[in-house]
Amino acid sequence: MNDMLILGYGPAGVSAALYGLRAGLKVTLIGKDGGALQKAHLIENYYGLETPLTGEQLMEVGRKQAAKLGAQIVDDEVTDLMFDGTGFVATGLKGVYRGKTCVMATGAARKKQPLAGMAEMEGHGVSYCAVCDAFFYRQKDVAVMGSGEYALHEATELLQVVNSVTLLTNGAPLTAAFPESIKIETRKLKGLVGEGAFKGVQFEDGAEQNFDGLFVALGSANATDLALKAGAAFDQGKLVLDGDLQSTIPGLYAAGDCTGGTLQISVAVGEGARAGLAAIKYLREHRE
Ligand SMILES: Cc1cc2nc3c(=O)[nH]c(=O)nc-3n(C[C@H](O)[C@H](O)[C@H](O)COP(=O)(O)OP(=O)(O)OC[C@H]3O[C@@H](n4cnc5c(N)ncnc54)[C@H](O)[C@@H]3O)c2cc1C
Questions:
Q1: Hey, which end of the chain has fewer CB within 10 Å, N or C?
Q2: 28 with 51, same domain?
Q3: Taking the C-alpha atoms of 264, 268, 269 and 270 in order, what is their torsion angle to the nearest 10 degrees?
Q4: Digit-coded pLDDT (tens) for 121-141
């Protein structure tokens, strides 16, 4: 088992990894793409870059540095995270990864409320976590909003429990192979139906369809989704983190853009260092 399992190989994840590796730990970094850093055209405000680098170049340097120190670097998209009593288990599209500690460094949370009123309906028919809430929808008809691998993962989880699952793509192209047991609705959405509690959706053509619940699974799983699945606590929608960036689950940390605040490389690197050092301390204190 890894000592440190790090989800995201951007500046925050790599920074946490460097500390773990230099402490002699077994570290695996998992990432699905270049994250925000890859999109940055030219970095001029990060320490030490006398000659500016593109985000992509800086990312490459960071990953090479971690690999040189012994990190295992895996390209995969993580869709699930759980704590099984002995460690963290992250499920990806290509494999399952285990770690005694886990640092979530998945970058900034994407916009998750594409329709008005969605935030207010969270917990009242709108959910962001199939494994957490599927039970409440036994034998009911639910919708999943999304169109990719993460939506497929959530829909598959729900299929075990609910009566029917309808995928609402909101006009987006499908980027995963959905089984026939999942109904696909491609019409664009106009809004949600229900006062305070979710009752269904309205399409742009004016038609309405009732559902008992709506699971939002847009894009890929981010730190919030994964922390929810692992059972970490939230306060007013924000992941609860202590001064060491540790969640309410001992050994589970978050760092970088995914914690909110200032979305800058220097901050992400700093938080990665804090989480990495805290994970090292945790492992030393819990050595068998
Ligand atoms: C256009 C643009 C320009 C910018 N310019 C600057 C600048 O000039 N200076 C500056 O300081 N900052 C700049 N930033 C911000 C900077 O890029 C971010 O603050 C920084 O990259 C955050 O690092 P991070 O590690 O937290 O997240 P990211 O760099 O976003 O890395 C997130 C990582 O998580 C992975 N990931 C996410 N979800 C999953 C999943 N489900 N499974 C597996 N892996 C996953 C991604 O693949 C990626 O590896 C810019 C950002 C953008 C978008």
A1: C
A2: yes
A3: 100
A4: 988 999 989 988 999 999 999
Domain count, the chain: 2
* Same domain membership, residue 184 and residue 161: yes
Residues 196 and 212 in one domain: yes
- Ligand 1 touching residue 37 (CB < 6 A): yes
* Site to substitute for ligand 1 among 53, 97, 106, most atoms within 8 A of C-beta: 106
> Residue 53 pLDDT more than 70?
yes
141 and 162 together in one domain: yes
Q: What is the pLDDT of residues 200-209, one digit of tens each?
A: 999 999 999 9
* 43 Cα to the center of ligand 1, angstroms: 13
Other C-beta atoms within 10 Å of 84: how many? 8
Q: Mark 27-38 as b/e (b = at least 16 C-beta within 10 Å).
A: bbbbbbebbbbe
Q: Is 148 in the pocket of ligand 1 (CB under 6 A)?
A: no
**Which of 216, 247, 276 is where one domain is finished?**
216
Which residue, among 123, 129, 81, has the nearest Cα to 103 in the 3D structure?
Answer: 81
Q: Give distance in angstroms: CA of 10 to centre of ligand 1.
A: 6
134 and 191 share a domain? yes
Here the CATH number for the domain that contains residue 212 is: 3.50.50.60
Ligand 1 atom with minimal separation from the 77 CA: 42
Ligand 1 contact, 62 CB (< 6 A): no
pLDDT given for residue 244 in this prediction: 96
Does the CB atom of residue 103 touch ligand 1 within 6 A? no
Looking at the fold, whether 23 and 155 belong to one and the same domain comes out as no
CA–CA gap between residue 240 and residue 248 (Å, rounded): 7
